[in-house]
Design a protein that fits this description.
Elements (H helix, E strand, L loop, with lengths): L5 H18 L6 H8 L13 H25 L4 H27 L3 H24 L2
Length: about 140
């Protein structure tokens, strides 16, 4: 795709990956997440990601970064304010609404929904800003 800074895509994906690790760590929401999932502690065996999951999570972030970069290029976004608007639109229109289906149909706890969608919001905004500013 024309107009995409692929180095910025990789950096955005790496930053999002690190943010996710921090988000679900005991420093932020790891303890609450573990409690809601019925896991004794965030460091318990059931809470540890295996190497294939780690790779899949990075690839997932990379895909999101590529798609966001395509939106940035197509929409001509070149500043952080417009990037924030894009990130919010993507989050509300796709991520938050997709995850809310689990709340509606599977009785997913609202607190768990808030943890997951908060993570998605934070990562999407940061990725959008990186991609929107670093053209």
């Amino acid at each position: 795709m024309l107009g995409i800074n692929y180095l910025a895509v990789v950096v955005a994906a790496v930053v999002a990956f690190v943010m996710g690790g921090l988000w679900y760590s005991p420093l932020l929401f790891g303890k609450a997440w573990a409690k809601l999932r019925g896991i004794d502690s965030p460091g318990a065996a059931g809470a540890q990601m295996r190497p294939p999951e780690i790779l899949a999570e990075f690839v997932r972030g990379l895909i999101v970064a590529v798609v966001l970069a395509g939106f940035v290029a197509h929409l001509g976004i070149a500043n952080w304010v417009d990037a924030i608007y894009l990130g919010l639109a993507v989050w509300i229109g796709f991520q938050a609404t997709s995850i809310v289906g689990a709340v509606i149909h599977e009785h997913y706890p609202l607190k768990l929904y808030a943890i997951h969608t908060g993570d998605a919001l934070a990562k999407t905004l940061v990725m959008a800003v990186i991609l929107g500013v670093w053209r």
